[in-house]
Amino acid sequence: MFVISFSIDSFKSRCVVGDELGQGVLASVYKGRRVSDGRQVRLPPQIPFYWSFFPLLSFHLQLIEWFDEPQRYILIQERPDPCMDLESFLKKQGNCMDEDMARDIMVQVVEAVNQCSKRGVLHRDIKLQNLLINIDTLEVKLIDFGCGDLIKTTPYDRYAGTFRYCPPEFLVYGSYDADPATVWSLGVLLFRMVYGHLPFASKFETIVGIFVFKDGLSKECHNLIAWCLEWLPSKRPSLQQIRQHEWLDQDQVGQ
């Protein structure tokens, strides 16, 4: 993909900024329109120039072009339409969803996270608000890499993300590894989608690691959630094991 850096005057002449869509960790995101062809885009124009990992913000949404200003970067990204964040979508569904819909979404989320991992990128804030869903096609996009980092083989000693998705090893020992922490957040996400609430209401509950399953879900779904939310990081599945789990592999369900 060919991307060019333009001057400030060039940006103002090429894009029209609209209403705010939301706020991420480092940037406010706005609706926008490209003057040349009327294409609807996303504009996060408040990324400070000294932030060295700014390209992570556009890892899953297509990066159309970017502008290099003296004090900030301006990224022009695709804006899927019609779409909303997954939290808003869930509220319209009665605050939770059935297993079939949750499976379709989880397959996409796991694949997105797996692609990030293959490229050495750690998102660190996987949650409902950071997933965009097209309400017509149910296509899902992972957004807001403001907490992101490059994957390393040694533990992280600083938690960046939402604490209700935080793995217990950080709360107890003050450190965590990339993949097990990501898997924990996927377990929290899946629990939230099918139950309508988070599995742990406080840091204490996360540390204790006790959560309650209710009737109504398949044993395969229960099994995957419980595996992702294993207290010991070494007992959690890998991303590849999650993708191959019988609940996500519809051909295996019911066999």
UniProtKB/TrEMBL annotation:
Protein kinase domain boundaries: 15-248
Listed SMART domains: S_TKc
Cellular component terms (Gene Ontology): cytoplasm
GO MF, one example: protein serine/threonine kinase activity
Gene Ontology BP annotations: negative regulation of apoptotic process; regulation of mitotic cell cycle
Top-level taxon of origin: Eukaryota
Catalytic activity: L-threonyl-[protein] + ATP = O-phospho-L-threonyl-[protein] + ADP + H(+); L-seryl-[protein] + ATP = O-phospho-L-seryl-[protein] + ADP + H(+)
InterPro entries registered for this protein in UniProt: Kinase-like_dom_sf, PIM_Ser/Thr_kinase, Prot_kinase_dom, Ser/Thr_kinase_AS
Matching Pfam families: Pkinase (PF00069)
Keyword field: ATP-binding, Kinase, Nucleotide-binding, Serine/threonine-protein kinase, Transferase
Active site per database record: 125
UniProt KW ATP-binding keyword: yes
EC annotation from Swiss-Prot or TrEMBL: 2.7.11.1
Record keyword Kinase present: yes
Amino-acid positions noted as binding ATP in the UniProt annotation, renumbered to this chain: 78, 85
Top EC class for this record: transferase
Similarity section: Belongs to the protein kinase superfamily. CAMK Ser/Thr protein kinase family. PIM subfamily.
Name under which the protein is recorded: non-specific serine/threonine protein kinase
